[in-house]
Input
Amino acid sequence: MLVLDSVTQKDWREAAQKEGQAASRQDNLLKEIWSNSITVKDDAGWDTANLLSQMGRPLSSVEVQSRLKKIRPNLIFETSLSDPTKIGLYIETDERTAAGGWTKRKVFLCGMESGILPEFSVLHKTTKQVANPDLFGKDAPTREINWLDVPTVSGETRGWRTVLVRLMHLGIISRGEVQKHFNWTPSRDSAKWQEQTR
Output
C-alpha cells in the first residue's frame, strides 16, 4: 500500500513555489535592466542625449503643424494647459451614437514640443538603482543590498521625425506624404528611423 507523506509533499511544493518566485523576480529584474539600457543606446553612433547631435534640421512647431495640416486637415493641435511647452495632436472622427446618429469625437494621437523641434528626439538621461541580479536571490547577507546604477531616460524632447513615426504607425499619414512634405531621408544616418519605418 502506498502512503503519501503529506508533510514532505507540502515542503516540496513550498520550496518549488519559492524557487519559481525567485526565478520570476530574477527574470523581471533582468528585463528591467535591459529595458532601461536599450532606451539610452546610441543611434548609428550618434549620442541620443546630445542636443547638437540630435538637432539635424530643426523645425518650428508652427512649421510642423502647417505641413501636417496639408496632409490631414482634420488634425487638431492644442497647447497643454499643464505644460505650455507641449502640444497635443488629436484627430476628429465621426462616431456613431447609441441613438443611431453621429457625433464628433476628439482622439489623442501623440504629443510634441511647442517651440523648436529637433529632427531627432533628445533623451534626457539619468540613472536608476536596481538590485544586482548576480546577488539577487542568493544567500547574501540580507541587511545590505548591492545596487547597480543602470542608465535610463528621465524625459524626452521629442523630435519631429518621432512625431512622424508615431503618426505613420497609427495610419494617419503615409510614407509618400512624409516624402512630399518633410523629405523622407534624414539629415544624417539614423538606425532608429530606418528600423521604425520599414
Remarks:
- The beta strands are 59-60, 75-79, 86-96, 102-113, 116-117, 122-131, 147-157.
- The two ends are 66 Å apart (CA to CA).
- Residues 6-39 form the longest helix (34 residues).
- Residues 10 and 16 are 10 Å apart (CA to CA).
